Amino acid sequence: MSDAARSLHAVLGAGPAGTALAGELVRRGHAVRLVSRSGPDNAAEGVERRAADVSTPEGALAAVEGADVVHHCVNVGYHHQVEVMPRIQRAVLAAVESTGARLVVLDTLYPYGPTHGEVMTEDTPWRATSRKGRMRAELDERYLDAHRAGRARVVLGRAADFVGPGVLNSTLGGAVFPGALTGGEVLGLGDIDLPHSYTDIRDVATGLATLGELPVGDGRVWHLPTAPAVTTREIHTMIEERVGRPLQRVVLPEPRPFGPFDEAFMDEYAEMFYQHTEPQIVDSTAFARTFGVHPTPLAATLDATVDWYRGLLAGARG
């Protein structure tokens, strides 16, 4: 087994991205530690589980102890992000600066802000206007500054809205697939005739694992493998074909509570609603060109997602 395969990867955050990434890293032969505040209960076989609060210096050090590569996939509730995410960054950056581990950060599109339909590449200017977008941009500048200053080795991987097995809290997740399968209401946000990119959660895992294995990508932002954008209406049509019934669609032209998205969430999401009133198009060809990793076709993503939700609903009924 190679030295790379023997390396320890610490994955911070046991949500859909962290869990999928831990499984992908195990499949690649790595030793893997999955960390969450209360201790993960959904880790793949062969994954070390650890409880740690990475918003504190002591917790972050305990989380990354002995790791060669640290993957920061931690997220917090929408209404806590502006306050808590900078605190997590300070603790995690200090920890990897102390230990020498490489840091792979799962990032969002928020720093770009409104693009007025411009295709987003890694060269797109950061023009965030929202509180959360400006916060994310500031965090990313600090990550890259730490790399440029030689204090840490850092790489960032940006994803569009998640979709795929295990993804619930997404605009293409728990507010869509259960209703599609049962004849209930299905959410659409904003203008569903605009193209909108979604990143398969398995491609998030593949992309982050690749960045963790290949330091050639360090010191910059990458767009993780993301299938070409189509309109949300086209995606709904593809879902209809898979579930064998028309969708009972509810389109919200402005943010208000619906399904898993309560009032507190939607109040915070309002400043991000521009993502559904202009095209959101992510170009990930740089990743494919550099690393030879291509996105899962959207049809295959929807096949797997519908199958996963079928299983979830069957389990709930059982």
From TrEMBL:
Organism of provenance: Streptomyces angustmyceticus
InterPro entries, alphabetized: Epimerase_deHydtase, NAD(P)-bd_dom_sf, NAD(P)-dependent_oxidoreduct
Organism superkingdom: Bacteria
PANTHER family: NAD(P)-BINDING DOMAIN-CONTAINING PROTEIN-RELATED, PROTEIN YEEZ
GO terms assigned for molecular function: aldehyde dehydrogenase (NAD+) activity
Protein name as catalogued: Epimerase
GO cellular component annotations of the record: cytoplasm
SUPFAM superfamilies: NAD(P)-binding Rossmann-fold domains
Residue ranges of domain NAD-dependent epimerase/dehydratase in the record: 13-213
Name of one Pfam family that matches: Epimerase
